[in-house]
């Protein structure tokens, strides 16, 4: 593959847990070329100096406008926080750069408004709450199971540095389940919480519980209860490498899309 055929990628959030893992993945991928990184400090630094990884090209920008106007960029991969992620996504659209957004915290209304802009520009991109293939399969299996088991509870478990709750994955799972599940308020009609929050968050009558503990990375269990039976679907990300197959696949696939896709499941074969 010649250099010209490489996909030119910018990573936003390079010093973070996911951003740094993404940069390591790009460094090992001959079809991807890291052209720059967006950080909120270290303007002008070499990425390899910032991360202490040798053999990386590209510099750090604190201003995304400067980066997109000075560099030739195909794809922006963003793992930051909801505020920065939304700002960066909008800039990507403005400059015609294809966004691959892993940052969680996007509402359906926001996704729809970005999609409309991208449809007008015929620009490809993806927002995916979870890039781990196993997590995406649990979402799909949960959607199948919810048709037969309307009584379901989601327990998502993450590391204690996670800022948002519930996780984007849990919300997306509940949204998919709501497509096949008869709406139902679970639990006893007259149940009362004697401690606020004991029954978790309410999504369409389903409950979502968020666990935050050191030692965890990203895990989710979906429990379905029926007459005399319990079905449990569980996925564990034991390492952030688990997300990289999906991130790499998304960075390649957005090159052939002309719309914004929400969820990795929508671009998997
Ligand atoms: N889609 C997925 O598969 C997936 C997987 C893991 C995490 N996530 C999500 O990705 C996001 C990041 O997670 P993390 O664990 O890497 O968090 P993190 O806190 O380790 O990293 C976030 C990084 O973004 C940087 N940052 C903040 N503002 C910035 C800005 N304006 N410009 C550039 N960089 C900025 C921070 O300095 C930090 O280094 C979260 O929203 C998380 O929920 C998604
Ligand atoms: O580490 C995180 O933060 C994660 N967030 C995603 C979410 O909010 O669903 C999932 C993967 C890990």
Give a topology summary.
Layout: E1 7-12, H1 17-27, E2 32-38, H2 47-51, E3 59-61, H3 64-70, E4 75-78, H4 82-95, E5 98-101, H5 108-121, E6 125-127, H6 133-146, E7 152-158, H7 168-180, E8 201-203, E9 206-212, E10 218-226, E11 229-237, H8 244-253, E12 260-262
The structure holds nicotinamide-adenine-dinucleotide (NAD) and the ligand O=C(O)C1=N[C@H](C(=O)O)CCC1.
Nicotinamide-adenine-dinucleotide is lined by residues 12-13, 15-19, 38-40, 79-81, 84, 102-104, 128-131, 164, 243.
In short:
This is 4-hydroxy-tetrahydrodipicolinate reductase. 33% of the residues lie in helices and 24% in strands.
Describe this structure in words.
The chain is α/β, with parallel strands linked by helices. It folds into two domains: 3-130 and 241-266, NAD(P)-binding Rossmann-like Domain (Rossmann fold, 3-Layer(aba) Sandwich); 133-238, Dihydrodipicolinate Reductase, domain 2 (2-Layer Sandwich). 33% of the residues lie in helices and 24% in strands. It is built from eight helices and twelve strands. The protein has helices at 17-27, 47-51, 64-70, 82-95, 108-121, 133-146, 168-180, 244-253, and strands at 7-12, 32-38, 59-61, 75-78, 98-101, 125-127, 152-158, 201-203, 206-212, 218-226, 229-237, 260-262. The mean pLDDT is 96. The structure holds nicotinamide-adenine-dinucleotide (NAD) and the ligand O=C(O)C1=N[C@H](C(=O)O)CCC1. Nicotinamide-adenine-dinucleotide (NAD) binds next to α1.
């Amino acid at each position: 593959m010649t250099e010209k055929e490489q996909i030119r990628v910018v990573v936003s959030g390079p010093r973070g847990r996911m951003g740094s893992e993404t940069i390591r993945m790009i460094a090992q991928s001959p079809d991807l070329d890291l052209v720059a990184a967006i950080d909120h400090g270290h303007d002008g630094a070499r990425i390899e100096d910032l991360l202490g990884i040798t053999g990386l090209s590209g510099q750090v920008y604190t201003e995304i406008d400067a980066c997109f106007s000075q560099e030739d960029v195909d794809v922006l991969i963003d793992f930051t926080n909801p505020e920065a992620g939304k700002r960066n996504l909008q800039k990507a659209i403005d400059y015609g750069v294809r966004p691959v957004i892993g940052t969680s915290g996007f509402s359906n209304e926001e996704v729809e408004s970005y999609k409309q802009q991208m449809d007008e520009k015929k620009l490809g991109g993806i927002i995916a709450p979870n890039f781990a293939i196993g997590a995406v399969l649990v979402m799909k299996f949960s959607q199948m199971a919810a048709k037969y088991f309307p009584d379901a509870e989601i327990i998502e478990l993450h590391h204690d540095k996670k800022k948002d709750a519930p996780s984007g994955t849990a919300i997306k799972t509940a949204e998919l389940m709501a497509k096949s599940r008869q709406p139902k308020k679970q639990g006893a009609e007259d149940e009362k919480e004697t401690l606020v929050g004991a029954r978790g968050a309410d999504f369409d009558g389903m409950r979502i519980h968020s666990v935050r503990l050191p030692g965890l990375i990203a895990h989710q269990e979906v429990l379905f209860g029926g007459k005399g039976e319990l079905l449990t679907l569980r996925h564990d990300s034991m390492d952030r490498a688990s997300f990289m197959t999906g991130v790499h696949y998304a960075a390649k696939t957005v090159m052939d899309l002309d719309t914004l896709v929400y969820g990795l499941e929508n671009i998997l074969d």
